[in-house]
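Task card 7
Instruction: Convert sequence to structure tokens.
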Amino acid sequence: MRSISHNSEAILCNVEANTADFLDVTETAVQGRLQRARAKIRRELKMVKDTFQGQGLSEDFSEEIKRLIERMVSKEESSSESVERLAEIGGPAVDPLCNALEDSRGAVREAAAGVLCRIGDERALHPLLRFLYADDGSASYRIFSRGKVLAIPGLQEELIKIIQSGKPVEKAWILIALSYAADDKKVYDCIVEAFEQHPEVRHQVLMGIMLNKTASLPFFLLKALETQDRNVMAHAVWIALSKGIQIPIEPALKAFSGKLSPRARIDAGNLVLNHRKKGIKALEQMMHTGSTAERSTAAVVLAQTGYEKATAVLKQDLNTIQKDHEWTAAIADALIRYCNEDLLLQIQDGQYPQENHHAIIWGITRSHIPQSEAVLDGFLHEGTPAVRRAALRMLVRQKGAEMLPELRQCLQKGRPRKLAQEAFQQMYRLGDDALSTVQEMFTSESWPERKAAVSLLRRWGKLLPAQIEQARSDPHMAVRQAAG
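Output:
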């Protein structure tokens, strides 16, 4: 680098010497003229800047800004290209962009706010603060939750003042924006204070800290687990598990024992299980001495490790729990996943209460593990409507287009309604494999089949103009309505 600098200086000296020889003056005189020229250019540039800011832009230039914004919103050209062009214009574009924040169209306001954040001019401070409290909350959320607003000089300080005002935080995404600067001590202290004093924003604090992957995330997770808010605790458990953050076993056990949803209890149990031998021992004790919810949750978690005693607990609970279908499904899912139990055969043999059949099959459906077609076929024709619906879904998953005659029959009958709705959805998912069958249904003597055919072809975008006219003259009102 030093040799390059010396070379540049040498070249400059040679230029000055040659210029002096050409003009027949001294080198000192050339250097003086160059210095005065540079100073004049600086003054003229300042005058141009002052003119832009003091007198405003010409109407044509403002129209150019509006045109770029319109193009960005209407997708006439690449959004990124319009943003780049507006960002290149920089300061002169700020005032028109601030005016665009008052536009009646949300897309225009959001686009203008995004470019203002990219430019980072202090004149956008108050317009963006007004935008924060605009009626279009979703647009202000998208702008502030990305943290780009912190590029506006003074805006971070204003957001801190809003949080520290002592009033309820109306726009919780202020905290998400501030979390992008959580490494700053003043911002960090502000977020901690808000977390402790404003329970209504704790979700947003956790989300903001998680998105930015700051080192303070474990601290906030522990704070969340100390609260009595079940939703906040469940959110913290999910974040810790999804981000692979090791939580001390005591807070994890507290969340496990809390009145959380079944899914959140299982997540908390997995946080306990992460402590290996110590965690397994704690879950074993909970399975034998805890409440009903704690015992079955511990069994579901331990089933993942192949713990044999967990199977007996899960079978017992599957026999006794009859009101909580979500939890019944979770237990069934654990049995089919980790204990290799053929629950459908056991249901058919009458080993489990009928009230639990739908929840069990739902749990098996979520496990994506193939089951006996013969057993599923039995439930399709003899179960309750909800059980038949679940069985139909599983059979189509296994057999695909082979189930088209059965699906068509369900649509023709139209009853039970749940089963007919599921048949329609499964036929729609089969797509081109079902197209020829649907075309046959279009001319069927059964009006439910004709109605389903019209609706399916419309959703696929394959309903021809001639078919539309034919459907609109159909003798049955439902078919005419399906044609639109």
